[in-house]
Design goal:
The complex is a heterodimer of chains A (364) and B (289). With 364 residues, chain A is an alpha+beta fold. Helix content of chain A is 23%, strand content 37%. In chain A, helix 3 crosses helix 4. Classes of the chains: A alpha+beta (364), B mainly alpha (289). The complex binds adenosine-5'-triphosphate (ATP) and magnesium ion. The site of adenosine-5'-triphosphate has 12 residues of chain A, from strand 2 and helix 1.
Chain lengths: 364, 289
Amino acid sequence: MAEIYDVELRNVTKKFGDFTAVKDISLGVHKGEFFSLLGPSGCGKTTNLRMIAGFEAPTSGEIFLDGQPVSQLPPFKRNVNTVFQNYALFPHLTVAENVAFGLEMKGLGKDEIRKRVADALEMVRLPDSGAKKPHQLSGGQRQRIALARAIVNRPQVLLLDEPLGALDLKLRKAMQLELKELQRQLGITFVFVTHDQEEALVMSDRIGVMNHGELLQVGTPEEIYDRPANRFVADFIGDTNFLPCRVTECQGEVAWVQVGQGIRVKAACDQAVSGERQATLAIRPEKIHLHPAGSAGGQGEDVFPGRIEEAVFMGTDTRYVVELEPGVQLVVRYQNVNAATERFREGETVAVSWRPISARVLLS
Amino acid sequence: MTARRKSLLAILLGPGAFWIGLFFLIPLILVVVYSFLERRSGGGVLWHFSLDAYIKLFSPTGETLINDFMMIVLRSLWWAALTSFVCLIIGYPLAFFIALQPPSHRTAYLFFVLIPFWTNFLVRTYAWKFILNNNGLLNNLLQALGMNRIALINTPTAVLIGLVYGSLPFMVLPLYASIEKLDFDLVEAAQDLGANYVRVFSRVILPLTMPGIVAGIVLVFIPVSGQYIVPTILGGGKVAMLGNLLAQQFGPALNWPFGSAIAVVFMALLMVGVIFYLRGDAREEEVGL
Ligand SMILES: Nc1ncnc2c1ncn2[C@@H]1O[C@H](COP(=O)(O)OP(=O)(O)OP(=O)(O)O)[C@@H](O)[C@H]1O
Ligand SMILES: [Mg+2]
């Protein structure tokens, strides 16, 4: 029997008039998983979340919660809670009343509610804020209260729509770790929406990358980063060098490609290619190594001669632009482990090397 | 504040202040002053200080007994309350409906709500008389449909219809203003937390639109409690409200000081009531809306 997912989308499509916001998405989120939906603004992340929560009905396809189809279920009958992008705290209620709202709707006793509200406020580290009104809190505190108001209900699934979007960088980083830790403690399934690739990489067990309403790739952060399925994913997550190339030969997962006039490169290829065809070669800047000219490179690496066009010191690393031949340039990030005098200078000839597995052929 | 800002403020506030002074403050002071003067038999007042009007109003043996006066006051308040209630029941869904329309349509709907103001209220009330008359539009329609005629004109029902009709815009506008401001994300948040439709309304929508309800009730209640035209034309004078009592004193009875005293006492009663009402609301409103 197939696994029962906590949240499952089967061929879900959502249209607003003629516009297709979500295109035929199928997706399963495991119990207790931290799953992120990642994609640029307007790609349909919120729409997806709203369908799971029950605020929008899919145009076609079905959504399952714990194996049960839920399309006919109104939001208040789904065992799902949402942390809204704008928090949506009730302005006429105190913080404690906000957090107690869901429990009161469930008809819990007064003592039980008081205890659980206190616990939840403790958990988000705002134990003394119960009597305050939402407008008396800072953005970060409101965000925590929105979180407390959702998790106090101990839902089966927690949906979070860019909950850290409004916070400054430092607070956001701190909250990322806190949230991840909280999720581990509670064991609740998280579906987390963000357009911040770094955030998704740091927090998620698995990531689903979306663009224009389509789900392009689902995988662990490592898979998404190291083996992007296409150019969009490679470009959206991390920095990548894209070189136009021609595939000349392909055996299993190894391909030979020609870049520019005369550079032959061995690269990884997920799809079988028969005959020659145009493609894109993708290499991450930090996977390329630089050596003094004439060096043989590291073990198992392919080596090419090059010339430093540009060197920009960036603190922990230096960003080089290296030209392999006229018109073929690579961005390289190289950690500044050596003394400043040993860094490469502009105009210097160098040896450029990388492992074939780090270079990936992307077919358009 | 600099002299320039002061003069700017004076220029900006001047017309409004002049308007209120001329058409509100001066008549109000006149009424208060008249209530302390002596009656002139042909109408008007004699400029002698006198408490006759108040003595007459509060003496248990006078020509208009305090009991009668209190009955009329209570009746006026009752009608005002009933009208406010009916306006609220009709106005709330109406305002909600308008607020849910796309922004471009809302203006059109509000325009329809305001159209009646283009015609004099007296004329509109006479129009209702034609509708509700025993031989009027409504009864003819009923008869054409094979139903029995109903006697409406000169009944309390006719008065209520007239009062609600005239007051509805004053209820709808503040309600619309507060419903339109409502953040519908909060409705979704409540549903998300397990609130069904009834509870979303009672726990979120109603409290958040309370300022509009309070304003609407004040705007309907106060004018209706002093209504004169509707009870006279549609109630045939059978439904005596405060306005009728006042008109009688300034008209046929030719007792201006007594009429003024009635007005002053009723105004004082209303003011106390409204102050308490708004105070209670302000306390509830300390939510920082
Ligand atoms: N109610 C609606 N009516 C019409 N179009 C809509 C509606 N809701 C969303 N859309 C459209 O669907 C697309 C996806 O919207 P959605 O809110 O899901 O994007 P998102 O990925 O959450 O973006 P962001 O990161 O900016 O929040 C957008 O182009 C948007 O204009
Ligand atoms: Mg969104």
